[in-house]
Amino acid sequence: MGALGLSGRSAAASELGFLGLLVSDGHDVDGFIESVIGPVARYDDQRLTQLTDTLEAFFHASGSPTHAAKALHVHPNTVARRLERVSELLGEGWHRPDRALEVQLALKLRRMRSALMGLDPLAGGHRTGADGE
Prior knowledge:
Layout: H1 18-23, H2 29-47, H3 51-60, H4 65-72, H5 76-90, H6 97-116, E1 119-120, E2 126-127
Antiparallel strand pairs: 1-2
């Protein structure tokens, strides 16, 4: 805890974000993903929206909603509305550096785990066919 600037305090691995994932024995990747972007992923699954794709495009575009909109082939206002919904689901500070790092890591881990398991993260975690369709 001293290395984190939290001397004199204690915390469970689940309270340390991605650092907890690294220092824990169990490496609960699914738990980390759920704790960071679970509300967004569930919203996408339940409403067939593309908030996780929008987040990925936003980060890939260095935080530019305009460039994210171009990459997603949607109007910039669409990206703005989606990011407002993300703020409602994750809280206002999701785009600040510390939280943004965790959100990006959770997005990458989710996509990687889905690919490795043959699941389509865009189809609510359903298996893809042999050709990926």
